[in-house]
Write a structure and sequence with these properties.
Blueprint lengths: L27 E7 L6 H12 L6 E8 L5 H11 L3 E6 L4 H11 L4 E5 L10 H10 L4 E5 L6 E3 L2 H17 L11 E5 H7 L10 H11 L4 E5 L1 E3 L8 H20 L5 H7 L17 H27 L4 H24 L8 H29 L5 H27 L1 H4 L19
Parallel strand pairs: 1-2, 1-4, 2-3, 5-8, 6-9
Antiparallel strand pairs: 4-7, 5-7
Length: 434
């Protein structure tokens, strides 16, 4: 297996903390990307350095300085001159993902780690994070704030944003990781050399793209619940980051749908077998194919729903007519999407899928019933045409919500990539003498 050798100019400068002779190849290289972190950098590095000294493997801290405009670089160099095993890399072009990628590719360590400079994640999780990689059990490891046993302190806004983002990822890119953007990750160096050249994003979407490529390539990803306390002084710009993340999701969705991501070649390089999609005749495995099938079934379901509603409306009031029409078409819709959109056949799990489909139906019912209630509160004598017009709009929104939930929850096992897992070999550890 070929490896990438870091060019001479990519290695840490002797003035930035250590030479290759002073700092032998470590097992762990903990990269801390920084941009305008003059105030918080020094306590972070000292705390991290003290913690790494207690681990049983030789370690290094790499400060990946990323186009700072304050005194961050001066602080980093001063601390690196004082603490052994701390080096500084300077990346003049902006982009957290770029700084992290270049630092990882230049490293000679066996396991590469990334963590945010604010150390929001309790460092006690570092050992559980890297242990699966050193033992050979996993290829990547991520900290997760969304596991049941994680302990998280943060505001409601960030909690909502985080959960919504990860739900969106499961619905669009069919990823199974629970927390794609927790700033606490590790990867085996041999795996990183294969994955990193394929990651296009150089900013905050870098993490997500790396994980999607890894998962699609059949790599094993370990998840470690973490204790995490939100940094109130975080410099992350939520709106700009969300915009960039959405652009990344759209780009990757298109590439996956068109077969342009080289995951098959990557699987061959890392020794995995061919990617196996659900073998169901006539069912397209990609997102675009699923959308087309779902839209066609949705159009037929909407037509049947409206016809049934109008038929019942001549006998009963609007709300009962809406309930019966939506319930009947929801059952038929779930059955059709199970077979035709998501490629799930046979009786196993059909009852469970219908129960979950009814839960999704309840959300649609709440939306359409709310629209009707609002219309009648505003105009008690609203016409049938007004009822139908509003119901079409509300049902369209309910359909979009139904697709996301069906793909991410109801038929998750049917739409997920079926993978053949090959356990990697353990990392060859050097002497533990320090």
């Amino acid at each position: 297996m070929s490896t990438l050798t870091a060019p001479a100019e990519a290695r840490p400068d002797p003035a930035d903390g250590a030479t290759d002779e002073a700092l032998p190849a470590p097992v762990l290289d903990v990269v801390v990307p920084v941009h305008d972190e003059e105030d918080g950098l020094e306590p972070c590095l000292r705390r991290l350095h003290a913690h790494l000294a207690r681990l049983p493997w030789p370690s290094r801290i790499t400060v990946a300085e990323n186009a700072s405009t304050d005194g961050t670089l001066a602080v980093a160099r001063r601390v690196a001159a004082e603490l052994p095993g701390v080096v500084v890399r300077v990346e003049s072009d902006p982009g957290r993902g770029r700084a992290l990628r270049e630092a990882w590719l230049a490293s000679d360590a066996a396991v590469l780690v990334y963590m945010d400079v604010d150390l929001s994640t309790d460092l006690a999780a570092l050992l559980p994070l890297v242990a699966p990689l050193i033992s050979g059990h996993s290829d990547l490891a991520i900290g997760t704030r969304l596991a049941g046993s994680a302990r998280v302190v943060r505001g409601a806004k960030r909690e909502l944003i985080s959960r919504s983002y990860n739900l969106l990822l499961r619905g669009t890119l069919a990823t199974h990781v629970s927390d794609a953007q927790c700033g606490f990750k590790a990867v085996r160096a041999d795996v990183a050399r294969r994955l990193l050249p394929l990651v296009e994003d150089t900013g905050w979407f870098f993490d997500t793209e790396l994980l999607v490529l890894a998962e699609r390539s059949g790599l094993r990803i370990a998840e470690v619940p973490v204790d995490w306390v939100d940094d109130p002084d975080s410099s992350v710009h939520i709106v700009a980051t969300a915009r960039a993340d959405l652009a990344g999701i759209v780009r990757m969705s298109r590439a996956l749908a068109r077969g342009r991501l080289p995951v098959a070649d990557l699987r061959a390089q890392i020794g995995r077998g061919p990617l196996r999609e659900p073998a169901v005749d006539g069912v397209p495995p990609g997102l675009v194919g699923q959308l087309v099938r779902f839209a066609a079934i949705g159009a037929l379901s909407t037509a049947a729903y409206l016809a049934l509603f109008l038929l019942l409306r001549g006998v009963v009031e609007a709300q009962p007519a809406n309930l019966v029409a939506l319930l009947v078409t929801a059952v038929a819709n779930t059955a059709a999407n199970r077979r035709l959109t998501f490629g799930v056949r046979g009786r196993d799990g059909a009852g469970r899928a219908q129960l979950q489909g009814l839960a999704v139906f309840a959300l649609g019912l709440a939306l359409t019933s709310g629209v009707l209630a609002g219309l009648h509160a505003w105009d008690p004598h609203a016409s049938r045409l007004a009822e139908v017009a509003l119901l079409v709009t509300a049902n369209g929104l309910a359909t979009l919500l139904r697709f996301v939930l069906m793909r991410a929850w109801v038929f998750r096992s049917g739409s997920a990539v079926r993978r053949t897992v090959v356990v990697p070999t353990p990392v060859a550890l050097p002497s533990l003498a320090r």
